[in-house]
Amino acid sequence: MPLSMIEALSCSALTGFCKSDFDRVVEALKIPSYIGAYSFDAFECFFIFIARLKSGCTYTVLTSLCGREASTISRIITFVTCYLFHIASPCLSVTNASWLADRLANIDQSLLSSSRSISNSRIVGFIDGTHVKIARPHGNARLECVAYSGHKKTHTLKYQAVTTPDGICIDLAGPFAGSQHDSFLFTNSGLYRRLKPALKVGGIQYRIFGDPAYRSSDLLTVGYKGQNLTNGQKEYNTILSGSRVSIEWFFGEVKNNFQIFNILGRLKVGGVRFCGAYFTIAVFLTNLKHCLEGSQGSKYFNISPPRFEEYMNGLKFPQYFDGFLIDVNGTSSFFSKQYEHLSFDRLGNIL
Questions:
Q1: In the chain, what is the straight-line distance between the N-terminal and C-terminal CA atoms, in Å?
Q2: Cα angle 234, 247, 313; round to 5
Q3: C-alpha distance from residue 298 to each of 66, 275, 343 (Å)
Q4: Which residues of 172-190 are buried (b: 16+ CB within 10 A; e: fewer)?
Q5: What are the sequence ranges of the domains in the chain?
Q6: Which of 130, 78, 88 is nearest to 274 (CA)?
Q7: Could you tell me which InterPro entries the record lists for this protein (predicted)?
C-alpha cells in the first residue's frame, strides 16, 4: 500500500497515532524495508501490524484494506512482531530505564505537593497484575488447566506491570499462567532484584505501592489491613489507593486502544503464536504514545512523561542480515525467512 494511501485514511482511527506521530514512531523504530527477497515500505509494514492490533481484524479484512495477499500480510506481521518484541522486551525492564533516576525525586515531590502521597513514604510507582483473555487451549491438558482463571472464569495469560504516575510502564513481566496469584508473579518475576537498585538514588530508597495481595517489604508498600484501623491508617489507605488507580488506567488504555485483546478466540497459545508478544508490544507502543501525547495519569498528577527522544535513547535495534534477524541483546537469531527461528513467544512461565 502506498504511503499516500495511508495519508488518505484516518490514521488516528486505524493506528491510534496522528499522522505526524505515526511517521515519527516509524522512523524511530528503524523497521527494515525488506524481508528476505521481498521489499516493503517500513511505513506500510508498521501500518499493517498496528492496524491488526488496534482493530483485532482478520487477515482477510487487512487484505481488503491494504490490497495485499493474505500470505504477504502474514509474513509482514510475523516479521514486525519479532522485530518489535526484541525492542520492547528489554525496553520494558526497569534496568534499562536510563532516564528514570533523574525523575524519581520530582515524582515523589509532585505526589506529595498534590496530596496524593504520604510524607516520607517515597512512593514513586504502582504495581498490579492484569489478565489477557485467550482462546481455550486444545491438545494440552496441563496448559488448559493452569491458564484457566477462576476469578475471570476464562482462560488467560497474566502480566505484572509497574507504572509511574507520568503514565509510563517501567517494568513488565510475563506472560504467566492465568491461575497464578499476584504475589507469585512478584516473587518469580525477579522484580525485586531489578527494581531495588533502580529506585535507589542519592542514598534514598524509593518504593512502589500495591494492593493487599502483595506482601509489604523495604521496596513494596501495601495498605493497612484489618477492621480496627486508626484514622491515620485509613487516611493512608485512602490516599495511596486513590493514586494506585493510575495503573488501572494504564491497563485500560492498552486494552481499549488494541481491540485484539478484547476479541475472545483471536489470541491462541501453542505452536507459533503471537499472543505472548502482542501484549508486550502493545504496552511499549502505549508508552511511546504517552511520551508524545501525555496520558490520563500524567494530567491527573501533573507530571510530564519523559520526552520521546529521551525514552528511545539507548535502545538496541535487531539487525537484519541475509534473511535473519539478529538479537543484539542476546546471542542468537530469532527470525528467518523460513520461520525456523521463532523464539520470541516461549510461554516458559506457564508450563
A1: 40
A2: 135
A3: 35, 29, 35
A4: bbbbbbbbbebebbbeebe
A5: 94-270
A6: 78
A7: HARBI1_dom
